[in-house]
User: What shape does this take?
Amino acid sequence: MPELRFTKDHEWVRQDGDAAVIGITDHAQNALGDVVFVDLPEVGREVAAGEACAVVESVKAASDVYAPIAGRIVEVNSALTEDPGLINREPSGEGWFFKLEPKDPAEIAALMDDAAYARFVESQA
Amino acid sequence: MAESESLLETPLGALHRSLGGRMVPFAGYAMPVQYPAGIMAEHLHCRSAAALFDVSHMGQAEILGAEGAEDAAAALERVTPADIRALKPGRQRYGLLMTPEGGIFDDFMVANLGDRLFLVVNASRKHLDFPLIEAALPAGVTLRPLPDRALLALQGPGVEAAIAPLAPALAALSFMGVARAEIAGIPVLASRSGYTGEDGFEISVAAEQAEALAKALLALPGVQPAGLGARDSLRLEAGLCLYGQDIDETTSPVEAALTWAIGKRRRMDWDFPGAGRVREELANGPKRLRVGLKPEGRQPARAHTPIQAADGTPIGEVTSGGFGPSLNGPMAMGYVARPHAGDGTALELLVRGKALPARVAATPFVPHRYKR
Assistant: This one.
């Protein structure tokens, strides 16, 4: 499985053929707590890097999920609507949010790698 | 976080950390919002078994009269529309502190201990409440804040069976009963009350014995710690107001649907602060009313969500909203213009610019299970 890249807003990105799969990190799901609802973007929507395009709601609060890179939404994870708890149980697997067709795939490589993200989380503690 | 340096600690701060509590700032205190089990599990455990909450940040005080609780009761009535004089020894009651304009200054619990009154007020308001009450007391009646006492809430259907072997006198109390007792050899003042809709106790204890008491209660069968997150979802399911969110100095008791907290005698004498506004609203109806709201579907609507009629006319705002773990769905409360306040009325909640269909719903969302 290709490696994950990370943002400072605690999203992860994984290249999957021509698409980029996006979700939130284990650190993020742990901070949010039990997820009870997700608001996913419309397929076909063009998003800029850093644009809020999904919302994840826990018992406690609502949080935005941002597009890590620019592109067009090509698929959303409809399984989350029925079972939002997937985000808590498998944040970097079955709990993915949406897939983008990247405007510039090089943007993915410019994001933090595993070690850099771990250092970032550490620095925020 | 720089802000944590100036936060106050309750006597249970070290215990919360040893239990893995996630500490957050609340009303100037570092408080556990949850433990490792998480808000959902803590909430459901309280509804199915028993949960222990630290509420030591709340303000405790006594009012002492020259002739015992009787002149203390008459004195407290100067700042509240509750009937305190009718409160019998060993009983507790909910009350409101009022502004002269008829807004709610705070809400509180008051118990008649026979020789004195015992008060519990909100953490966020205690620094204002105590001077307000003190200023209203006549000579010979004194308010004595009790900052050296902790307060624990033990809540849930399993509480009575768990505590009965340790303190049979407490198990014999009915809802809103109050008694002094010993739990595991520790002297406490306990009331059969709470903020979850479940049976349970609120237990006042000397600060230096709070940790020993908390550990003794956590050792009882079925008792798990729960944080402020579960406390909030439990009270919202129970339809109970949070001061500063659902009620404040701008809301009247009539608007807040808390008219039941005004004593019948007080409603004949109109001798409390803000009586003019209360009397006018009772006679003519308030412009707005606090109601329960049930969004359709799964999406929660949070505090400050605008409420509109089906035709798009703005009619109010959500004051508390979230997801009810026991309800297994979203729930909210808020104020709406009176013509829209009837149970079942269809309206819309404007969540992130989208109109979410909802209906006015009776509260509590989850039935109370008090020990009557």
Observations:
- Residues 258 and 338 of chain B are 15 Å apart (CA to CA).
- The longest strand of chain B covers residues 314-324.
